[in-house]
Amino acid sequence: MDKKSALIDRFSSAEARVLAARVLCRNYPETSHNIADENYSKYMSRVNPRRENDALVDYKGERRTIPFSALTEIKKLKQLEELDHKQYELLDELEGYINSTFIEKAAGRQLRLDD
Fold first, then answer.
1. What is the residue-wise DSSP string for 15-40?
2. Virtual CA dihedral for 15, 39, 46, 41, nearest 10 degrees?
3. Mapped to the 3 state alphabet, what secondary structure does the chain carry?
4. Top mean-pLDDT range of 21-25, 41-45, 64-68, 99-103
5. What is the C-alpha to C-alpha distance for residues 3 and 7, in angstroms, rounded to an integer?
6. Is the pLDDT of residue 108 over 50?
7. For residues 36 and 75, what is the distance between their CA atoms, to the nearest angstrom?
8. Residue range 78-106: average pLDDT?
9. Residue whose C-alpha is closest to residue 46's, from 28, 21, 70, 64
10. 54-64: pLDDT as tens digits
11. What distance in Å separates the CA atoms of residue 46 and residue 31, rounded to the nearest whole number?
12. pTM of this prediction?
């Protein structure tokens, strides 16, 4: 993985280096400690902000769904009786992914909604 993180510096464009660091950190989270990139931390704080008003904005100018809001929606969906077993399984998987990727890693805050 050190070879991949070393490639970041080979990009001539600063923007390309930022995007490359994001891709590596997102797809290989174990490397994020190797990449001392303050920009990535700022980016992740916008992906998983404390307030919805601080969320990233999409190309239409609309705020993106933040992980905490997604967990709230999942909890509501799980209460519906018309979901089948596979749909519940998918919701469980998504909830687990959000909790492990965003909520548990959010420094200094615990926002889990399960149970």
1. HHHHHHHHHHHHH-GGGTTT---HHH
2. 140
3. CHHHHHHHHHCCCHHHHHHHHHHHHHHCHHHCCCCCCHHHHHHHHHHCCCCHHHCCECCCCCECCCHHHHHHHHHHHHCCCCCCHHHHHHHHHHHHHHHHHHHCCCCCCCCCCCC
4. 64-68
5. 6
6. no
7. 35
8. 88
9. 64
10. 888 999 999 99
11. 20
12. 0.65
Token readout for 77 is 């969906």
pLDDT above 80: residue 30:
no
User: What would the two tokens of residue 63 be?
Assistant: 């705020």
The amino acid present at 8, given as its one-letter code, is I
**Amino acid identity, position 104:** E
Place of tokens 């509501």: 76
Type of residue at 114: D
Report which of residues 51 and 6 the model is more confident about.
51
**Residue 14, both tokens:** 């600063």
